[in-house]
Amino acid sequence: MKNTLKCILIVLLILGCNEKAEKPKEQTPLVIAPFDNVDTLAINDWWNRADNPIINLKVDRDSVVSFGIYTVSNQTLKLSAQLYPLYPDESREVLLEIENYGNWEEIQKQQINDIGWSALFRVENWDTTKDIKYRIRHGEKAQFEGLIRKDPADKETISIAALSCNSNKDRGMRENYVRNINYQNPDLIFFAGDQSYDHTEHTAAWLKFGLQFRETFRNRPAITIPDDHDIGQGNLWGENGKLSVTKGSPDGGYRYHTAYVKMVERCQTAHLPDPYDPTPVERGIGVYYTNLLLGGVDFAILEDRKFKSGPEGKIPQQGPRPDHIRNPEYDPASIDLPGLTLLGDRQLQFLEHWADTNKEAIKVVLSQTGFCGGAHIHGNLENRLHADLDSNGWPQTGRNKALTLIQKANAVHIAGDQHLATVIKQGINEFGDGPWAFVVPAIVNDYYSRWWWPEDEKAGDNPNPNTSLPWTGDYLDGFNNKISMMAYVNPESPSKGGGYGLILFDKKKETVTFECWPRYVDVTKEDAQQFEGWPITVGVD
Q1: pTM flag (> 0.85)
Q2: Which stretch is the leader sequence (predicted)?
Q3: Is residue 379 in some structural domain?
Q4: Residue 179 to residues 32, 421, 535: CA-CA distances in angstroms?
């Protein structure tokens, strides 16, 4: 099949299938993707594909540089250049330039990878004491310009905007988010996962995400981490990189070709600081867990899906699906069995080391999802689940190991995935002895909503006295984990519960403030209101 495809492509090239660009004497060899049936819109003879509902890939050639995304850590700049697909007769070389006393100076060249159409610039000994303009160039006219910000070490308050779950049920632009975030001007932006919901067409969807949000990270550092939908799965229990063969992947592992998975992670995470331990997991899939020190705040970036055990065949199945438990009479201890993994030994070792370093910094953990079962109803009001094994409330032993180390670091936790915004004080052995956790709302929450809705419709012990929300206080989740619910946003709330988080770290007062903003609120207006229950300020001394 692949030999036939190669022959067809060669014939197409000879016939001059590219009408967009003038052909040089020598063409760039066409890279044939090592996978089939995924990323079809952007691989091989991509220009022969019909128009698609995600994004126009056949852009003018002076627009082929879609965006750049970067971080600076330990005086090392890492910047990923994302391009639209290129024709065979176009250069694969991309340039990074910086402005120096009013003149543009080329500092690095890199080759674009035809699988995913990205390239990574890495510049050591970066000057973090001043703002520096950059631009990414391809050919004579295509470019993307932005600003590498200086480290905000002199600021008393460092802020981060946090978002997740960019549903493809709404393919419009994200003007409200861009306006609000740029007005609030955070020092860092965090996308916790599911930037793409198009599963088998990541490149097109990632380009669409960039078109929607690039004005938020053009001029500030950004952290992006992929979640299950980004790599083409409804749920992900990565189980150290193994191959998943069961529908829905509850057996654990990755469903699609490793080159596709690595492409997704390359496009979304190559610009992050170097991983703590770069050793790949099974089948050569890489890792990216690491930390980023910015302005006196130390962010640990976790991969809470990659090492997690899949439930199928390992625990007693409690219903028609191996990952859903509907029976409130089941024994939670029966599914917390020896050998089950959440973060895995490698990430636990990383967290142990991270907790013992940079102790003067405010510590923050960033991950894909929360470490408890923070929702009762999934998808629609008729679908009440007692426990969801896709949440990081399970396995309980792994959850408690992770929370113990997060608490040792005196860190707060920020995550996405659940669509349901919550602020929870985690409990490990007792209520309230674990870290604070803020799960931010979905960017678009019109598709798969979740509800916090105790079946008895009663507040727990020690309810939050500072809110009119009816169901706050101490609860056991479906795994018997101790949680103290402080605030939640059910989808009947403004913007159907869609929105984003803004978190402020006051280094002088040693406090963290969680803000939660509805999607359609204009924060530039004096009467702009957050969701009921927010803001919440907690101490981290």
Answers
A1: yes
A2: none
A3: yes
A4: 40, 21, 20
